[in-house]
Amino acid sequence: MNARRNEMFWSMVFAGNGISYTELKAMDLAEFAEAVEARIFFNERIKRQKEGEGLG
């Protein structure tokens, strides 16, 4: 659940250019797993925001 704890950090990463190959290559498995989890959360949040825009 580190991805949720670091949500603001990951939002900033994914709202920009994302993670570079060099950054991915330097990650250990725990960091990579957190990045994957964070990306899923980020995509879900964006989807909910877009669905909310259609209401009203």
Describe what you observe in this structure.
By secondary structure, the chain is mainly α. The protein is 79% helix and 0% strand. The protein has 4 helices and no strands. It has helices spanning 2-5, 7-15, 21-26, 29-53. Helix 2 (7-15) crosses helix 4. The chain is elongated and about 40 Å long. It starts with a helix and ends with a helix.
Short description:
The chain has 56 residues and is an all-alpha fold.
Key features?
56 residues, mainly alpha, elongated
Task: Give the H and E element order.
Answer: HHHH
What percentage of the residues does DSSP assign to strands (E)? under 5%
Q: Rg from C-alpha positions?
A: 13 Å
Number of extended strands: 0
How far the N terminus sits from the C terminus, by CA atoms, comes to 34 Å
Unreliable segments of 5+ consecutive residues = none
Q: For the residues shown, what is the average pLDDT?
A: 83
Main beta sheet strand tally, sense and closure: none
Question: How does the SSE layout of this entry go?
Answer:
Layout: H1 2-5, H2 7-15, H3 21-26, H4 29-53
